[in-house]
Design goal:
- By secondary structure, this protein is α+β, with helices and mostly antiparallel strands.
- The chain folds into 3 domains: 137 residues, no CATH class; 145 residues, no CATH class; 87 residues, no CATH class.
- The strands form 2 sheets. A 4-stranded antiparallel β-sheet has the order 4-3-5-6. Strands 1-2 form a two-stranded antiparallel sheet.
- The longest helix has 23 residues.
- The chain is globular and about 80 Å long.
- The two termini are 46 Å apart.
Length: 438
């Protein structure tokens, strides 16, 4: 049964059209980052970026370097869409995109993480075996089939994303629609829909629909009787997200994924009318079956476990943020903070406050004042800067944070020297004061 599920040869029309959609979308994402000023605000203006901890060495290229970097990524996206030197193009894009993801988190987005995972899959998928420049140059590459595991890898990844996103919404601030009200406050000036988004009834619809859509959309797309209506609902849901939340290519990438849920014959007739159909549906088990199952099983085991890790870390993830990233916890909280850093010279015992505006941009400052890893990393940055001046310092922080509109509460233990404190990767950092969240 497993062999039939994973190693049945099926028509590769869904993979071929997805490659085209995917390439166009990542090109738009990269070129758009240049044109909208995202690169300037996120990677050029900052004196330094807040990387994922452990990747501090991975800083943006100087001068016009990051504009060139994104231009190259956008061009690689076009090459992917055209199927030109496909393997090189998708692998190069994956490496470069992972670099951008790791080198900054002031603009952290779960969708950026998903893009790494899908790009990684595409490095291994035979997505260039038809309707590509590679096939035109090397006709022997042409194939009209793919193994069914291609479809199921995508489906299972999406099932994990949507299911955990739904489960994460089952907490007080979503169920009483309070966080939805907060998320909609800055949408009030949107034409036509802005005032409607401030209404309590709209918050209830968005809240209930968000949970049900995330929980049911993958099963509904898989089941033929509900597939078409699920697709129509998906179009509405993702266009709504695109308009209201302006989250780049993700809504359109989500719609592109739906090609894997329809019958290959349907996709072929819509997009590739002249394509030779593959109808044999034979099962062919590759010689590397065991290794493929081991690697795939290990990958998905990690994907299933990562979103659960915050349950094994002390305190509430809404407060500590420990275990939040890589867990498909999307649009669940609003954080704001006020943080003051004090530097004490270890030799003279002189203490002075740090002017944050002299170190970070406004965008970085909003994160720095409310997120513990940013606070710790900034203390390490101060330690490094003063060490270069021949000074040994201690760094303390007075911080208050508000979660989802609640009153501000003390966040960081002001007695702890953050400059000389280790970051705990897999457990609770005790200098984060206990929360008062339920």
């Amino acid at each position: 049964m497993l062999n039939r599920l994973l190693f049945t040869k099926i028509d590769n029309a869904p993979l071929l059209i997805f490659r085209i959609f995917f390439g166009v979308l990542i090109a738009l994402e990269c070129y758009g980052a240049i044109l909208t000023g995202w690169i300037r605000r996120t990677l050029v203006e900052p004196e330094f970026t807040f990387t994922f901890i452990g990747f501090e060495w991975l800083q943006p290229l100087p001068g016009w370097g990051m504009y060139f970097y994104f231009f190259v990524m956008g061009t690689l996206g076009i090459c992917v869409a055209l199927g030109y030197k496909y393997r090189f193009s998708i692998i190069a894009f994956t490496v470069l995109w992972a670099g951008v993801y790791l080198m900054q988190k002031s603009s952290y987005n779960n969708h950026y993480y998903l893009l790494i995972l899908i790009s990684l899959f595409m490095c291994f998928f035979p997505a260039h075996r038809g309707y590509s420049i590679d096939v035109k140059h090397r006709p022997r590459l042409k194939r009209n089939f793919m193994f069914s595991y291609v479809k199921w890898v995508i489906v299972l990844q999406l099932f994990i994303v949507y299911t955990y996103a739904s489960i994460a919404k089952l907490y007080g601030d979503w169920l009483d629609f309070g966080i939805i009200k907060i998320l909609m406050l800055n949408k009030a000036d949107y034409p036509l829909i802005g005032p409607l988004l401030q209404e309590a009834w709209a918050h209830k619809i968005i809240g209930v629909f968000g949970i049900l859509f995330d929980l049911l959309i993958v099963p509904a797309l898989l089941w033929k009787p509900t597939r078409k209506i699920a697709f129509i609902i998906s179009i509405f849901f993702h266009l709504f997200n695109s308009i209201v939340f302006q989250i780049g290519i993700f809504p359109y990438l989500s719609l592109a994924f739906t090609v894997f849920f329809f019958e290959p014959e349907t996709i072929r007739k819509i997009f590739f009318k002249k394509k030779e159909a593959y109808v044999l549906n034979e099962v062919k088990v590759p010689s590397h079956k065991n290794m493929a199952i081991l690697l795939g099983g290990s990958y998905f085991l990690v994907q299933f476990l990562l979103p659960l890790r915050h349950h094994f870390i002390k305190d509430n993830v809404l407060w500590t943020e420990e275990g939040h990233r890589l867990s498909w916890r999307m649009m669940l909280r609003s954080r704001s903070g006020v943080t003051e850093f004090m530097v004490t010279d270890s030799e003279t015992a002189e203490t002075h406050n740090i002017d944050l505006d002299a170190y970070v941009t406004k965008k970085q400052k909003r994160r720095l004042q409310a997120y513990p890893d940013f606070i710790w990393q900034f203390a390490q940055r101060l330690k490094q800067d003063y060490a270069e001046k021949g000074k040994n310092i201690a760094v303390h922080a007075k911080s208050k944070v508000s979660i989802n509109g609640r009153p501000y509460e003390q966040f960081i233990d002001p007695k702890v020297d953050l400059a000389n404190t280790r970051w705990e990767y897999f457990s609770h950092n005790e200098w984060i004061l206990p929360s008062k969240l339920d």
